[in-house]
Design goal:
alpha/beta, VC0802-like, 2 domains, 8-stranded mixed sheet, 7-stranded mixed sheet, elongated
């Protein structure tokens, strides 16, 4: 029987329940929500599957040691005692990321440097050779987390952040993070059982992530590399089996996924990214001004979008957000409309009652994911009274 071990998946604030649900659906054991993370248990194959399939995870860490530290010499000694030769070859490279919440240790770069010295000195004593440091493409990425005077060491099985899906080669102004987009879609209840529209699609991130959810395509199938693929214990045949098994669980999608943008450059970039993701058969893009459109189909529509906040784009926000509300109310009956915005003042001018309002973060910006239920017929007046 395969050996199970504890792992930690990092995520954005507020996405812990979404990530925990994903992990349970994948088959993880002992799933527990933390703050910006979820811990769980699984074997080596599950670690591969978590990296490949999770949509709302940023990194998958494998803890290897935890110990108290009271000084920098303490830190150096304890890290040097760890048998790093189990994880790192003499000719391989490493990098170290440190996160500190401690009064004793306050400089993350210094902690990383001290830890690197300890590992290098251990290798020099054992093999008369020091491993190289490579901050861009290391063979082993080590994660240090010091909470007060407790040090937790982990190996980063993802390598680069999992938001680097591998399909987005062209970006627009203020593109939304892929993991954030996928998490927001899951939070909105998107399940691929209706038509989907992003009316301000930018470089197409919501569209690609929506199609991958609808078809149950592994989130990171387009990535060139995961951190665990350069580990000493990497099992290539096992990973290939995980990929094959995950692809066998894809499903057909019988609705439409559409994107609008009024900027020709955004339309072009979105089409390029959709082609890179190999999803052209599921997604169509049109050069359209959302405010001049109306819903084309009679059935239910699921809409998720990321309008300008006024941070980087010169837009008259109050008027712009009022137009969003007017367009939804007048042209999009039978629609579940969700949008994320960090402009909470402009949000008041939409003029529609929110069904849900969820606090999230887009980068460093505190934002809200809001839902507007646009009904048709007699229910419209009841649920669409303008409010502030």
């Amino acid at each position: 029987m395969a050996h199970n071990f504890k792992m930690l998946a990092k995520c954005f604030y507020g996405f812990e329940p979404i990530l925990a649900k994903e992990l349970r659906q994948l088959g993880a054991g002992k799933v527990e929500e933390g703050i910006r993370n979820v811990t769980f248990e699984g074997d080596l194959g599950f670690m591969y599957k978590a990296n490949l399939c999770l949509r709302s995870a940023l990194r998958i860490l494998k803890p290897i040691a935890s110990f108290p530290v009271r000084s920098e010499n303490d830190l150096y000694r304890r890290i040097k005692e760890i048998p790093w030769e189990r994880y790192l070859g003499q000719d391989q490279s490493l990098t170290i990321d440190s996160v500190l919440k401690s009064e004793t240790f306050t400089h993350s770069l210094y902690v990383s440097q001290k830890a690197k010295d300890a590992i290098a000195d251990r290798f020099r004593n054992l093999f008369d050779k020091r491993p190289n440091v490579d901050t861009r493409n290391p063979d082993l990425r080590i994660h240090i987390h010091i909470q007060n005077q407790q040090c937790h060491l982990s190996l980063d099985s993802s390598g680069n952040s999992l938001h680097h899906r591998g399909y987005r080669t062209a970006t627009n102004i203020a593109p939304i993070n892929e993991v954030l987009a996928a998490g927001l879609l899951l939070m909105s209840g998107w399940n691929g059982r209706s038509d989907f529209l992003d009316p301000m699609c930018g470089s197409g991130t919501f569209l690609v992530e929506a199609a991958m959810i609808a078809c149950n395509i592994p989130a990171n199938i387009n990535r060139e590399r995961f951190g665990f693929q350069t580990w000493k214990d990497y099992d290539e045949s096992l990973f290939e089996k995980i990929v094959e098994a995950s692809l066998n669980k894809t499903r057909e999608f019988h609705f439409k996924i559409e994107g609008y943008d009024k900027a020709p450059s955004a339309v072009s970039k979105a089409r390029t990214n959709i082609e890179e993701a190999k999803l052209e058969e599921y997604i169509s893009i049109e050069h359209q001004d959302f405010f001049k459109t109306a819903k084309e189909s009679q059935g239910p529509l699921h809409m998720v979008f990321n309008p300008p906040y006024g941070e980087r784009l010169n837009v008259e926000m109050e008027r712009f957000y009022k137009q969003i509300g007017d367009t939804l109310k007048q042209g999009y009956p039978n629609t579940q409309a969700w949008m994320i915005t960090a402009n909470l003042d402009a949000l008041k001018h939409v003029g529609l009652r929110t069904s849900r309002k969820i606090k999230v973060y887009n980068g460093q910006l505190e934002a809200r994911l809001v839902q507007y239920e646009i009904y048709e017929g007699s229910r419209k007046s009841k649920y669409q009274n303008p409010t502030t």
